[in-house]
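Ticket #4471: structure output looks truncated?

Reporter: J.K.
Steps to reproduce: submitted the chain below (169 residues) through the standard prediction queue, then opened the result file.
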Amino acid sequence: MSSLQQPPHSYIPFAATTLTLPPVTESVSVARRFVLRTLGDQVAAGAGDDAAALVSELATNAVIHAQTVYTVVVSSDGCTVRVAVHDLSAVIPRQQVYGSEATTGRGLRLVATMSANWGIAPAVGGKAVWFEVACEGGREPPAWEVDMNALIDALDDDDTWWHRQQLER
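Returned output as attached by the reporter:
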């Protein structure tokens, strides 16, 4: 979901921590570590990996596109972690479609895919792009069904018999 508004539910965080960073590429890793450290101190540590990956995308967008200082805000309502990146640019980002060889243009799509909810909140003097993830972490891992015999048959070596014996134990 993407919207130009605040989250659709009443959101009253029990804890909010902020960090303001300069618009330089080195600040992206600082934003990522800040989110991990903040979530590690809360009950929301399970959301850390997803939140760190997503804040990297939003911080990179702030550095490259807004080119202004930006503030990372991490908060939680107990079961949901919300991270927002506020910058001083009034330009509203939108998902772009680039060719498969492009080295840019996938950040907002990644945010939309990995988060439970996300949006853009215009503000006086800038905007905030935010996302939410569940405290216990992101989505369910995909269920993989693997036909081990077919996989072993696809191996082209002399150890196939040994591999099959190991699976049957």
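Triage note (M.O.): checked the attachment and the full token line is present. Confidence is low (pLDDT under 50) at residues 1-5, 8-13.
Status: closed, working as intended.
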